[in-house]
Please model this.
Amino acid sequence: MNQWVKDKEEALIGIRRDLHQIPEPGFEEFKTQKYLLDVLAGLPQERMELRTWRTGILVKITGTGAAPRRKLGYRADMDGLPIEEETGYAFRSAHKGYMHACGHDLHMTIGLGIVAYFAEAEHAISDDLIVIFQPAEEGPGGAQPMLESAELADWRPDQIVALHVAPEYPVGTIATRPGILFANTSELFIDLTGTGGHAAYPHKANDMVVAACQLVGQLQTIISRNIDPLDSAVITIGKIDGGTKQNIIAERARLEGTIRTLSAESMTKIKSRIESLIAGIETGFECRAEIDYGANYRQVFNEAQLTQEFMGWLNGREGVTLYECTEAMTGEDFGYFLAEIPGFMFWLGVDTPYGLHHAKLEPKEEAIALAVSTIADYFTWKSEQVE
Model:
C-alpha cells in the first residue's frame, strides 16, 4: 500500500465516521456539502479549484503537463437512505430516519483521500484530475443533470472511474468486468382508486386492496412469461399501502416497486406489459389507475479497453485480489456518466454479513485506505502512459 495513504489512514477513518453521522436525502445534502468543503479548504490550494453545483462539488487539480492535458475523473455519490440505523456504531446517524446504508460515506471519504494525495506537490501528475462529489444518486438522480450543467462543461473528464462497496467480498478484493456491470433500472409507483365502503357491504364498493393483490401477482407473470428466459429482469414490489381501518373497504391503494433489466429492450417491453395489465385491472375492478416510473437509470456499462487495461494493471498488485465478476441487477446513476465518458466502475470488498440498504450495514473501514492507494497509484500510472 502507498505509504502516504498508510500514514493518513486514521484521519480518513475519522472523516468517514463524521460523514456517517450526517446522511441526507438527495439534493438536500447541505451539511454533507459544508463538511466536504471544510475538509477541502484545509488542503493545499496552489493547484486546486472548486465549483459547487446544487449540493454537489467539483474539484479540479491542475496537472503539470503541457496543454492539452487529459482529465482523469473520479466520482463519489453523497446522499443517504431513509432507513433507521441499527448498527452498533458509537458514531451512528444523528439524523433520525436516515442512514448511510449504501456506502456513500466511504465513497466520499475515498474521494477526499484522492484529492488530498494529488493536491500535494510531490504527488503531482501531468494530467488534470477532476473529482466529482455527486448528490442524489439514490433518487431522484443527480448524474444526468450534473452532466448537463455549465459547471461541469469545461471540466468534463476524458476518462472516469467510480467504485461501489460490496459487502459480500473480503477487504482487498476488487471485482469488475468489461461491458455491463449494473442493470437498467426504473422506479415504479402505481396508484389505484376505487369506491370505499363498509366492510359488511362489499357489493357496494370496489376494494382496492383486493385489486392491488391481484395486480402484484399479475406483475410477476411478466418476467416468467414475457421476457426471454436467457435475458435477466426483475420486478419487485417493495411496499403496498392501502386502506384506513380493518372494517373499512379501501378506496385507494398504492404499490411502490422497482424494475431491473440487463437490456434496454426488456425495460421497454416490461413497461408496455405493465400498462396493459393495469388497463385490465381498471376494467375488471372498475377503478382508476395511475403509473409513475419515477427515476430511471441507465445500465452501468464499462468501456472494454479501459476496464481490461485496469484489470491488467491490478493483476499481481500486492494486497489486492482481482475478481472478474458477473453482472448484477443493482442500479447506479453512474451509468449516465459512462454513456458519455469512457470509464468503468468496480466493486470494493468491505466484508460485512449485511447487504446494501440494510439497517445493520457495517463495512470494514480498512477498505478505505486500500481504495485510495489503488486509485491514486492507478491515476499516477495512467498519467505516465503515452496516448
Remarks:
- Residues 264-285 form the longest helix (22 residues).
- The radius of gyration is 23 Å.
- The first strand starts at residue 48 and ends at 53.
- Residues 181 and 327 are 4 Å apart (CA to CA).
